[in-house]
Every structure is written in C-alpha cells, then in structure tokens.
Amino acid sequence: MPGNHDANRKKRPLKRLPVNESSFSEIIGSKSVYVDKTRMIHSLITNLKTPYFLARPRRFGKTLVLDTIQNVFEGRQELFAGLDISKLKYDWKPYPVIRLDLSSVNTDPDEFQEDLTTVIKTVALRDHKIHLDVKADSDVSAIRGLIEELYCRYADNGPSSGGAGRKSADSRIVVILIDEYDAPMLDNIDDYKKCEAIRQILYKFYRAIKSEAKLLRHVFVTGITKFKKMPLFSALNNIKDISLGGEYSTLCGFTQDELTQCFDYHLNSSLKSLKRDRYFGPDSTVDTLMTEIMYWYDGYSFDGRTTVFNPYSIVSFFDAKEFDDYWYQSGDSLFNHNNGLSNKNCFDLFDTDLSFASTFKVLDPGKMNDVSVLMQTGYLTIDRVRKSGGLRNYHLKIPNNEIRNAIAYEIMEHAIVPDGINDPVKFLSVYFHDFIEAFLSMDGEKCESLFSSFIAAFPSNLLGTPEAGEYVYHALLYCQLKACRLDVRCENRTGKGISDIVVRTPAGDWIVIELKYTKPERDLPEYPAVSADPADPMAPGSPDSNMVGISSDGLPHISGPDIQGTDASVPPDDSSKPLVAGLLSEPALKSLRRNVDFAFKQIVRNNYALPFISMRNKVFAVAVAVYGRNDVMFRFKEVAWSNETHKAVAYKWISVQSWTSVG
Q1: Domain ranges within the chain, ordered by starting residue
Q2: What is the pLDDT of residue 485?
Q3: Which of 72, 294, 325, 430 counts the most CB atoms within 10 A of its CB?
Q4: Pseudo-torsion of CA 577, 583, 588, 590, nearest 10°?
C-alpha cells in the first residue's frame, strides 16, 4: 500500500528529471534523479566468468544499466559517491570497454555486415584511439582485432612474446557490452530470408567473441525478445539469462519504495498541480496520488511476485504532471508481426486468467508466438507462476491502465478507422459520439440499440470464436468508452471482488458497470416475439422498481425473475441471430432480465461503488446484459448508501428526463 509522506517538509529545489536521458554520467553530473541500482550491478560484475543476457521492453532502462556498468568498469569512482556500490568492496581498477548498439547498424542484409564492421572500427578509433586495418565486410576480424589490441594495451605487464594468446592471472581484462542485440532481426521479422541472412552473419560474430573468452572480464547483452535460435545463445552457449525471476527482476523499472524515496518532492509537486487542475479534491494526499500512479503505470512483474513501474512513463508523468499514455505513444502499432497483436488474439488479452505454459523463448522468427512476444515487449506481464512437471505455467495479465488504453485504441483503430485518417482519436470520438451521449445521459434504450448495432457490425474475425467468453463483450464496451478518451477504469478491486468497468464522467461523478453474458441454448423452439413492456417491474420508472432495498438476508431484494442459477460465463452461440431492437424472443428477454438483476445484486453486495462514494460525487450503477451475439439490455440506477455503515445499501431507477449532472 502507498506509504505516508510529509507534505509540510522543508522545501528544497526539485531535482532535474532525466527525461529521455540514458547517460549515467550526464544524470549524475546534472544532479538529476537517479534510482540507485548499483548494488545489483555490483553483484553482476563481480562474477568474472558468466556472460549475462537481460530482456526488457523498450524504454525500460536497459541502456542506462549498460552505461552505468561501463562507468564502473572504466573506474570512474567519483561518479558513484554516496551510491550503494561505494559502500561495497570493489577495486575501481579501469578496464577497456567495447560498447556496441546494434540498433544503430544498418539492418538491410545487403549492407548489414559492412555497416557492423564500420561501427566496430568507429568504436575502436573514437573510444580507444585504435585504427583497425580490416576489410570493409570483415566484422569478425574487426571484433577479434579490437579485443586483442585492447588486451595488449591494458595487460599489466604489456604484451608477451606469445601476443594475445598469453595466459596469466590477469588475462581477463576486456569488457563487452551489447545493447539491442535483436534489433537487426526485429527490423526484418516479416521476411524470413532476410532474418536468416542476418542470423548467419551474427552467428560468426558471436563465435568470434566466444573464441576470445580467455581475455574477456565481463560480457553483458540486452534486448527486447529472446530468440532460442538466435546466434547469441548458440554461439555463446554459456550465457546466463537473468530476464525472468531471480535477484535481478527489478534491475530495470522502479519499485514502489524506490519511487517514494527518489521522487518524494516530485510527488508533492505533482499533487499540488493536480489539485489546482481539480483532478483531485482539496483534501487528497500523496497516498491518493500514489494509488493513482500505481493504477496507471505499475504492475510489471518479471518474477510473478515483485512489481515495478514503467520508468519512462513515471519520469514523463512527473515532467508533465498529467496522466497520459507516454510509453505507448512513443512506440509503433501493435497490429504487426513485430509486436504480436493479431486478429486471433486481440480480445483474449482481456481474459483475466490468461495462462501460457512456456519458457518465453521464441523458437523461430518465422513461428513467433503472439502471446510470448506481447509479454516480452511489455503489453502483457507475469501475474503469477506455477510449476507443473518440468514446465513453468505463467499466468499473464495486462499490467496497468496505460497498456489497457493502448490495446483498446489499437483494436478500435484497426477495426474501425479507415486507412489514411491522420487523427484516429478524433475519428473515433465522432464515430462513437451518439453512444457516449446516450451513455452519459443514461438513456438505456438508446444505449441498447447503438451497442447492439456496434457488436453486429464489428469485424467477425476480431470477435474470436463462439467459445469466447464474457471478457469479449466486456472488452468491446470498455474499448468503445475508452476510444472517446473517457476516464475508464477496468477491474477495480474492492474487499469483496472486482468490478468490471468504472467510468468517471466529465462532471466528476462515477458510473459502476457490471456486465453479464449468457450463451443461448442450442435448438431452442421458436417463441412468439414479445415486446419489453415499460410497465414491467424491471423497467425504468415502474412503481415497483423505484427503490431496491435490503432483505432480511442482508442482500438486495429484487423483484422480477429468479436470479438463481445464472451462468454468466457460458460462451455465445455463433448461430444466434440479431433480434429487432425492442422486440425480443422470450428466452432472450428472460435471460437479459435475470442477468440485469444479478448484476445489480453483485454491485451492492460486493460494495463495488464504495471506493467512489464521497460528499462531492454521485455514484450510479449500470447493469449490462448480453444474450447471444448482440441482444443487449442496459439499466441505470443511482446508488444509495448509508452514512452509518459507509456501505452501498440500495439503488433507484434513473429516468433520462431527471438526469442533468452530465450530458
């Protein structure tokens, strides 16, 4: 839980924020905020024989880790004053470092080898004043030559008569750091032949590094994805993958303790700004802000136990003092092979118990597993890990609100926005204008018609198979609301359960949504069509439905069909047909009414509205029922609550005419 903070502490100037900064020396020299990871780095670099590999999503701090390691090995002790490593045993002797960033190499297979050679020669001349006399396309000769030249220059006793082959106690002196090792493959991932051509070049390159192992003090490699057949892992077959689990799970990203300690003054400054903008009320505390930051940017886990915040989003948030999708906006579209979101899995991601038995090694660039790639690229994360036999079974989830927003935008843009539209957000706002207007004015009948039509028109290849569960319709409603940039919350936890969707209206009120779904029985007999009678006890405004109270068993007493036996998890029947709006078959009408009852009962019984009730806000409950593919019922009620017990105790129907708070 968020910790306590003293908002009245003595003021001091805010430390600079390292926005888009990945140079350790620049961050320290400019007195910017630095989250100290040097204790873990000390543990890594004191093991002289093991090459390490770390996979993390883009903009997650990998380059800064490499740069920090480089500064340690170069013996720049003065930069580390006061940091953890300065309190640990280390000799601070300088060692030669070869630092390569493969994302800077031309990834066209016809030019890759020549450009890689050029990069190595540039590093040799710029960083070590060594001129390598090798052919333009000889990356192997270049890397071996640079390693051996550095050994000869830095060996304590100078070069021996045997040259670089001399064996001595201090022969391991050269450090190699490689950033974005997989960039050449990812840039060509849709062309297997190009990938294979680059793979062959890199195989020889990494074999050359391995052949010089007796001279290498430390090797550290970073990337986004892990390819099992990548030359890095076959040529350097002793490399240790520290990406998942273990003591280095928080090497990249910020833990909650690191955030509160290193950004304490930025937390207070941001809270004041958000109060001025009326995002928070005047009595809100830093704990309130921390809860919101956790909702937006926390949730990444690489061991199934400890979570970290997205560092790029955190720094960007404190810089702008405004919640937004910073990390997502800095990347590319999810709907491509590189990142793994495809037609067959886009709604599966909203499944709250997505399991995947894997070691997260992508077997082959031509056979990439979408879910595995989405996890490695940061759009899914580990929720928990279970061991079964010789396999680890990973339960995955969407990590936070920013990523849930990203997926919603991508699905809606891919499904609805025509090619050539320059402003997809504006297009979607216009496209969904009528539904959002009906929703905010709580016009249930219009919501039913528009949402039903939306489902019917949605591309069937994105809806998934008939076996898809409730989460598909939950996701459709969430995406439709989110596409218009409403403040939409998903799966808000309370003490008794998790609400499906919560919306904060432009007026500052809250709408708590519970959705239930039923699959029609197959081969149902034909029933005469019946209309939804406005005088029905379950209809808005009817005398018997104005207020639903608490019965002797402590649960809401609801008139209407019996709700026992409701199965809200049964998947849809693909053969069901759309029904005329307002004219439903008897089984459909009965199912919709039953599930609306059940949804309201769940909202009150589990206190889903409680976190949003305050003296300044109204809270409304919305029950949404779906039957088959696109038979829909929306019902809106205002939540009544007890000042004595601070619990939601009842709800009453809302009529469109009396609703004026939003619109």
Answers
A1: 36-241, 256-401, 488-658
A2: 78
A3: 72
A4: 180
